[in-house]
Each structure stands twice: as C-alpha cells, then as structure tokens.
Write a structure and sequence with these properties.
The protein is mainly alpha-helical. It has helices at 4-13, 16-45, 50-57, 59-77, 86-105, 107-130, 134-160, 182-207, 224-240, 245-260, 263-287, 292-302, 326-339, 362-395, 401-425, 443-460, and strands at 162-163, 169-171, 210-212, 215-217, 309-312, 315-320. The protein has one domain. It contains 16 helices and six strands. It has a two-stranded antiparallel sheet with strand order 1-2. The radius of gyration is 24 Å and the shape is globular.
C-alpha cells in the first residue's frame, strides 16, 4: 500500500497527453539548440558576431514550439487519450526542416514555409481536433467535391500552369495567391476519393463478383471511376512533366484497393492492371519519345561521373553527363561522404553545393551536417510515425471503412515519398524531383502533409 501512490503517479505520468507534453518539451530543446548551433556555425565561418544573429533567428523555433503546444492543449481539452507520439514526431521533423532551410535559404524563406505551409496546416489540425465531426461531413458530403476539385486543379495546371526554366508546368497561379503545386493536392484528393468510393461500392462489388476458379472477378464498372481518376491525373502529370508524382499515385491506387477488397478480388484486378500496364509500356516504348528531363535523369542515374557527351533526342548537347545532369547526384554523394557518421556540424558543412538541396535533396544536406547516425534516427522516426498511423487504422472498428482507408492512404503516401526521395538522393533509384514529407521546402506540400496528420489526430479521438 505504501508504494501504491507513487505507482499511480508514475502511470499517470505515462498517460497519453502527459507523454506527449514531455516529448514536445524534448522537441523544444532540440529546435532551439539546433538553431543556436546553426547560427553559431555560420557566424563563425563568416567571422561575424553570434548574438545578434541568434536573437534574430530565435522567433522561428518559438513559433513552431507555440504551435505544437497549442495542438497539445486542444487534444488535452478534448480528453483524447491515444496517439501521444504522432504530433511530437511531426514537430521534430518540421524543426529540423526549418533549421536546414534557414541554413540553405535564409530566414525569409523559413517565414514563407511557416506562413504558407505550417500555419495554414495548423488551422486545419485545430479545426479537426475541435470539431472531429467534420470527418463525418467529409465522408458524406464533401469527399466527391474535394476529389473533383483536386483533379480539376491538376488538369488546369497541365494547360494553364506556370512554365519554369526546364519547361515543366509544376504550379498554378490563381490571381494574387502564391503559385500552388497542384500535384501535392491531387495525392490527398485521390486518397479521399478512393476511400469514399471503395466504401460506397466495395460490398456490392464483392457480392456480385463472378467466381473464376479461386479468384473472384467483379464487374469492371466498379473500378472504372478510380481507374479514370488515376488515368486523367497521370495524363495531366505527363503534360506537366512532373513524373515523380506518377509512382505515388500508382502506389496509392494499388495499396488502397488491396486494403479495401478481399484478396481474391484484389488479385484479379491486380492481374488485369498488370496486363494493361505491360500493354501500355509496349506502346510507349515504340511510339513515345521520353521528355528530355526523363532522359537526363536516367543517364545520370546510370553513371553520374560519365565523361561521355550528353545526347538528348539524338542531339549532342556539348557537355558531358558529369557536367550536366550527373552533377547533382555527384554533389549529393560527396555531401553524404563528407558527413560520415557524426556530420560536419550545423553551419559548418557545404550543403549549398548540392543543387536543390533545400527541396529535392534536403536529405543529403541533413546527412552532411548532422551525420548518418541522425539520418538513420530520422528514418526511424518516419517508421514509427507510419506504424502508429497503421496501428490506428487497425484499431478502428471494421464498420469505419472510409476512415480506415484514409489512414492507409496517408501512411502509403508518406512512405512512398520517403522511399523514393531517399533512394534518389543515394542514387539507388533514379531521382524523381518529389519532396521529403515535412522536411523539404514547399508550402503546399507541407500544408497537405500537416492536413493528413490532422485527419489522423481527429480519428484518434474515436478511440478515447
């Protein structure tokens, strides 16, 4: 009996929101310490005074920390007693992102990341936490509207988007608003659409399926809408020359079909899809000339140090592969080697030598200055985040199919982005130009990712 009171206090300390508060405190210390080290490193290299620059930089982590505690207090007020790890992990990832972007692009771009991505996403997270019934409205009334809106924005970008220096149309300008990267929006739109449609027709499709041996063949009309959505989005992305988003859409489509249908139905549809994909691949190989950006990425992936002249569409360019598209991969590899296990230290490396280190190759910048040990810990954080989201999907009642499929889609989206981008940074797979969730610069991408976390935290309320 004497030890009962301390034991109760110990378990109360470990309850969900208390553990979350402790983790946010740790994130707070990491954020302020990281900014202090980055500022000190840069100022020492430039032989400039440290204190004025440090005082100017401290409001950046302060905004992040206040935002983290705001959501924590909202969840505590709502009495939520599940998922204490998700929000602190997101805070840690964003804290590292802000430090690296400050290091590479300066404070003005960090404020842009906060105002265009983090703070609007925070509004969505708080709204979903305070009014979790918004999810029910999303399922019943808004799913189709949001899905169609995201697809229409992507199609508009394909024809009316802003053309960048490479000739790609990656963003849409709407009046005075900042350019919108609609490829990021369409990923969430696809997740919502598939979750809504599979819940709506899933049982009917399986009930009316024809038995073909061990397999069950449902009517194709049940798969035309989802296939049409992916087909139109893919055509738009091809016209935009945004090929990195295509494998993500394909992964979402396959994974959510697998999660939403019985194995016998899914395998039948997967076999049909595989045959159609092979047929399309054969046609493309014969009749389609890959765009220059794809040719350059493939050539650079094969040998980024090649001294052979770069030839695009049969025309010599006058530069070697190493001087052209291979340069980015070379610098990424050099940055990773320079970082080693422990890194050069924040502010003491040269990640700015890597082209697009603030967005496409931010993982290389992180490894150089923080080391492979921190990079592996970061990947472990992503793994924990994905497992917690999938755990929540498993724990939800079977009747909540729309909500469970939402969580599956979110986890697959985050995993695919991390896998593809880290693989491209290490030259394990061809680079694709997509961003690392929560880390890379990109206001719309961060807003979409934070919105996904808001959906996760809203669904966590259904478990107590």
């Amino acid at each position: 009996m004497e030890n009962a009171q301390p034991r109760r206090l110990f378990f109360r300390f470990l309850e969900a929101r208390s553990l979350e508060a402790l983790l946010i405190v740790i994130v707070t210390l990491v954020a302020f310490l990281a900014f202090a080290l980055a500022v000190a490193g840069v100022q020492l290299q430039e032989e400039a005074p440290i204190l004025p620059a440090l005082l100017a930089a401290l409001p950046l982590p302060a905004v992040l920390v206040l935002s983290l505690f705001l959501v924590h207090f909202v969840l505590r007020w709502r009495g939520v007693q599940t998922e204490p790890v998700v929000w602190p992990i997101v805070g840690l990832l964003v804290a590292l992102s802000l430090v690296l972007i400050w290091r590479l692009r300066g404070p003005a771009v960090v404020w842009q990341q906060l105002t265009r991505g983090w703070l609007p996403g925070l509004v969505v997270v708080v709204a979903l936490a305070v009014y979790p019934l918004l999810l029910e409205r999303l399922r019943r009334q808004l799913a189709l509207v949001i899905s169609a809106g995201g697809l229409l924005l992507l199609l508009a970008t394909a024809f009316l988007g802003v053309v960048d220096e490479s000739g790609a149309r990656l963003s849409l300008k709407l009046g005075p608003l900042p350019p919108i990267q609609t490829a990021e929006v369409v990923k969430l739109s696809l997740i919502i659409f598939l979750a809504w449609y599979i819940e709506r027709v899933g049982e009917e499709a399986e009930g009316r399926a024809r038995i073909v041996g061990w397999l069950r063949l449902p009517s194709l009309k049940y798969f035309v809408p989802g296939t049409l959505f992916v087909f139109l989005a893919t055509l738009a992305l091809v016209r935009m020359s945004d090929f990195g988003a295509i494998p993500i859409l394909g992964s979402l489509f396959v994974a959510m079909l697998y999660a939403g249908f019985q194995p016998r139905v899914f395998l039948t549809v997967a076999a049909i899809g595989l045959v159609l994909s092979v047929m399309v691949a054969i046609v493309l190989a014969i009749a389609w000339e890959p765009p220059a950006v794809i040719q350059q990425r493939l050539v650079a992936y094969r040998d980024p140090w090649s001294e052979e002249e770069l030839v695009i569409n049969g025309q010599p360019t006058g530069i070697t592969v190493a001087e052209g598209p291979g340069y980015q991969i070379q610098q990424s590899v050099y940055a990773i080697i320079a970082g080693g296990i422990s890194g050069t230290g924040l502010g003491l490396g040269s990640p700015q030598n890597v082209p697009l280190a603030h967005s496409d190759f931010i993982f290389a910048a992180l490894v150089e200055e923080l080391g492979a040990a921190v990079a592996l810990a970061l990947l472990a954080c992503f793994a924990i985040l994905l497992l917690r989201i999938l755990r929540l999907a498993i724990m939800l009642p079977e009747g909540q199919l729309f909500e469970r499929l939402l969580l599956v889609g979110i986890s697959v989206h985050l995993f695919t982005q991390v896998f593809v981008m880290v693989g491209g940074t290490l030259n394990v797979i061809p680079p694709t130009g997509i961003t690392v969730p929560f880390l890379s610069q990109g206001g719309v991408a961060l807003l979409v990712n934070i919105t996904e976390i808001g959906l996760v935290l809203a669904l966590a309320q259904r478990l107590g």
